[in-house]
Write a structure and sequence with these properties.
329 residues, alpha/beta, D-Maltodextrin-Binding Protein, domain 2, three-stranded antiparallel sheet, 10 strands, 17% strand, globular
């Protein structure tokens, strides 16, 4: 009788535990840019093979996905949401117990800045600072005017064109002989970096991470010597009508994994994975460069990541989950 009772209690506890951690069907937003589609595919594979979830990728984009999660509770997971763009709505969703900020999907945040090639810094270490860039302005030849130095800005129409233009003024770059070059497009900007790098020429301009370009080419972010003044950045640097901009480094853009409250409550173990899963910009830059070089999609990049970066992803899950994922690979 005692043995039967122990067995019954043990079975009841197991049943209760598995019900408490029932993952079931999980919908994951597959956003239309490379870093997000890699994350979505990695999440799908780990949830299916490690946690026994029935995971499905559905097309997504920042605003519609965030709005749908708040209003309809679907999808269950947005792997990479640049949360500044709809922060008020997300915070309201959390306050109303509809959503959770699970963790930072890009642990360094989205990174912006003015960059120079690393080989140039090896030659002139002071070029890692804005004072050094200004001192050596003549190195940065303008493609059309030999008497001017070139600063490559954001393409016209992008939000970052405003911040880059205001910082150009705040740092007094025109007084040092620099002129703004509009690259015309994202491809024009990345092409300018690639061309300079292949010829080992000087280059100075705006760029952001994580990107394939910063995975392929070693670039150094120029230190303005100002630190980050977030209030200045929000109230003036990013505003088209900013009259007297002051120097500030770009603050990192928070990039979160968002889940619905329903999913987090229904599948606490799977939810815990999202609280630990995060990519550094250095790792993501390398992944994006690999994708570009191999013309790979999100699923192919997922296999490449899981097979070549076990030291990264195995820290996100318990050992028994990691073993299941390895076996599935």
């Amino acid at each position: 009788m005692k043995l039967k009772m122990v067995a019954f209690l043990s079975l009841s506890a197991t049943t209760f535990y598995s019900q408490a951690n029932e993952c079931g069907k999980v919908t994951i937003a597959d956003m239309n840019w490379n870093s997000a589609t890699v994350m979505a595919n990695v999440d799908k594979f780990i949830l299916e093979n490690g946690y026994g979830c029935d995971a499905e990728l559905i097309p997504g984009d920042t605003m519609p996905t965030g709005t749908s999660m708040i209003e309809k509770g679907q999808p269950d997971v947005a792997p990479e949401l640049w949360s500044n763009s709809l922060k008020d709505a997300l915070d309201k969703g959390v306050a109303e117990k509809r959503l959770r900020y699970a963790g930072k999907s890009l642990v360094d945040g989205g990174e912006e800045g003015f960059w120079v090639p690393s080989y140039l810094v090896k030659q002139y270490p002071e070029i890692a600072t804005i004072a050094g860039v200004k001192k050596h302005a003549k190195l940065f030849e303008h493609p059309e005017d030999p008497d001017q130095a070139a600063f490559y800005s954001c393409p016209a129409g992008w939000n970052c064109q405003i911040s880059a233009g205001n910082l150009f003024r705040a740092l007094g770059l025109e007084d040092s002989g620099f002129t703004i070059v509009d690259p015309g497009s994202s491809a024009g900007l990345s092409g300018a970096i690639a061309k300079a790098y292949e010829r080992e020429e000087a280059w100075f301009g705006y760029y952001w991470a994580p990107t394939a370009v910063l995975g392929k080419y070693q670039m150094v972010k120029v230190d303005f010597g100002s630190g980050v003044d977030e209030a200045e950045f929000v109230s003036c640097t990013t505003q088209a009508d900013c009259e007297s901009p002051k120097p500030t480094m770009y603050p990192p853009s928070p990039v979160h994994t968002i889940t619905t409250e329903e999913f987090a409550s229904r599948a606490p173990q799977a939810y815990e994975y999202f609280t630990k899963r995060g990519f550094t910009n250095a790792d993501m830059n390398q992944l994006l460069a690999w994708m570009e070089d191999n013309q790979a999609d999100g699923e192919e990049a997922m296999y490449h990541f899981l097979e070549n970066y076990p030291q990264v992803w195995q820290t996100w899950v318990p050992q028994e989950i990691a073993d299941k994922v390895k076996q599935a690979l």
